[in-house]
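Q: Give me a protein?
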Amino acid sequence: MMNDPSSQTDARPDSRQSDQLRPVVFRNDIAPYAYGSTLIEWGSTRVICAATVEDRVPRWMQEQKVGGGWVSAEYSMLPYSTQGRKPRDISRGKIDGRSQEIQRLIGRSMRAAVQLELLGARSIWIDCDVLQADGGTRTAAITGGYVALSLAVQRLLAEDKLKESPLAQSVAAVSVGVVKGIPLLDLCYEEDAAADVDLNVVMTSRGEYVELQGTGEKTTFGSPALHRMLELAGNGVAELVKLQRDAIEAGANRPGPA
């Protein structure tokens, strides 16, 4: 059963309203050798997102004679990003399933924003490293990853390596969920762990959906709860897009890489 969210907003660990994002801050150029980078601080979650450019495309594109470029991503949680140490993937000899699934999601999300044919025969890698996790690391990686991608495109344009921007629209992501019957925007870890329903929403600046990842963790949910969560997500993404735009504009006219 879905309760009235306005009646229990003080139940959130940080006393936010049900439709309120945690504070989001972008700190650009955190990785000076990358073509574009930002540290996104989203509440207590912190993720470094860096874009690296390579003048080649994946082998499958070469073999199939596919024109244009490619955008891909890698994601990792550093050992000290959680309360209990998380071993590095290399210590297990393979990437864990969660990290693999998230980096594929990031890659799909970035490609939704790019006209790949305008990239030329080059690849852009978006590397997302979680410094501190308090819920929403994948949505932070997508939201920060787009800023890093945009900064990289700015630099490619400034260096005349691109004649026009391949960015067709921006993309951002946010989590929503139902906790104790109340639909909430932007779950922190404590809320995510207790959620009855968990949904990650990736959207463009045009209000179109890129991907929905949702599940009834502890219960099923109906159309009213889903509609409310999507409404919360849409409003949250619209706010994130404005913050992205400010961060990207602040990165304009910065010096090139060393």
Summary: DSSP finds six helices and nine strands in the chain. The chain has a mean pLDDT of 91.
